[in-house]
Every structure is written in structure tokens, then in C-alpha cells.
Design a protein that fits this description.
Helix content is 43%, strand content 12%. The protein is globular. The protein has 196 residues and is of the alpha/beta class.
Length: 196
């Protein structure tokens, strides 16, 4: 008998853009089926319950845009563990300005503060909806990685040597990725900035 979605081990990691999401997804995917930014597929019409068909082990995502589809995920997977990576909003804005000094699409650098402010408001919705939330500061990810892995239910798969090895090779999200999202034509600059 197949597991219902709300019975299967699942987890979600989120936070503001520019909080090491690509690296976290890459690392967690070594222990489970962890997708970076499944919100892109949801924006294209995939329902959360259809994100990982046929996957037998734990499933999850790392997605800055999770707050936009958190309620749908809750309805599909129940009150799953959530990790929120907190980073100083001013640092996030500076990181966005450094990465995209000319803006993204029709969103200019002077508007990054508005984008980040809206994302902070939407994160409050995740905190209100989910009860099993672990909050980790951006600068403490490495120190608390074992706690993160334990919180999302993968402690039995944690390997310190693998973590140390992968942590030496950071995964970065190149600005060309954002341009490809814009070129798809169904996303504004503000939306594109949430995927990072």
C-alpha cells in the first residue's frame, strides 16, 4: 500500500533570498530527495502533492519562495518540519545589489528593500501556519548543520566527513539563472528575486 503524501517524511527549508539555498539543497539531496526551488514548477501549474511522484524516501525542498505556496504544501504534506534561515535583511539587500547592480527585469536596486520587506511579511505566514519550525541564523548554518539535519528527520544519514567535504565546495547561483527565469516570460523581476 502506497503512503499518502501527508504520511510520508517531508521537510521544507526557506528564508530570504541569498541565504545559501542552492548549497543547502545540494547537500540535503545527498541524504534524501531535496529539490531546490520547486516553487518554479508550482508557478507552472504543478500541484505540491505531485512534486515527487514515485519517490519512496523522505522528500523536501529548499526554496526562498516557499511562503508563497506554504499553505498548499501544508494541505498536501501536513505539518512537516520547517527550517527558516534568517539573515539580516540589510545584508540580503546588499548581496542582491552586489549580484544584480543593474536590477532584475523591471525591478531596480532601489526596490530591493520592498522585495525583501514583502518576503519578511510572507515568512510570518509560514511561522503562523507550521508548528515544527527551527530558526537558524545564516552565519550559524555550518555550526548548526547537524541540528538542521536532525530537525528535518535525516539525522541517521548525517556524515560529518561528507559535510566537511561538500562544505569546501560552495554551490553558487549564477545571475544567468535569474535571466533565464525572466526570459521565460511568466515572471516579474520581483518574483525572480525570490528564487535565490
Amino acid at each position: 500500500m502506497a503512503l499518502e503524501n501527508n504520511e510520508r517524511p517531508s521537510f521544507f527549508v526557506t528564508g530570504l533570498p541569498r541565504t545559501r539555498g542552492a548549497w543547502l539543497a545540494h547537500y540535503l539531496n545527498t541524504m534524501s530527495c531535496c529539490e531546490h526551488e520547486p516553487g518554479l514548477r508550482i508557478m507552472n501549474g504543478v500541484m505540491p502533492q505531485d512534486l515527487w511522484p514515485g519517490v519512496l524516501g523522505p522528500v523536501g525542498s529548499v526554496d526562498s519562495s516557499f511562503s508563497l505556496w506554504a499553505k498548499l504544501a501544508y494541505n498536501s504534506y501536513g505539518d512537516s518540519p520547517v527550517v527558516i534561515i534568517n539573515r539580516d535583511p540589510l545584508e540580503v539587500i546588499e548581496s542582491l545589489k552586489s549580484e544584480f547592480p543593474s536590477g532584475v527585469g523591471e525591478t531596480f536596486p532601489f526596490q530591493y528593500g520592498e522585495v525583501v520587506s514583502q518576503a519578511l511579511i510572507e515568512l510570518e505566514g509560514v511561522r503562523a501556519l507550521y508548528t515544527n519550525v527551527l530558526e537558524v541564523d545564516y552565519k550559524d548554518i555550518d555550526l548548526r548543520i547537524e541540528e538542521i539535519v536532525d530537525h528535518i528527520g535525516l539525522k541517521y544519514r548525517f556524515d560529518r566527513q561528507k559535510f566537511d567535504y561538500m562544505n569546501r565546495f560552495k554551490v553558487t547561483v549564477h545571475p544567468k539563472k535569474y535571466q533565464r527565469l525572466l526570459d521565460g516570460g511568466n515572471m516579474s523581476g520581483r518574483e525572480v528575486l525570490l528564487f535565490g
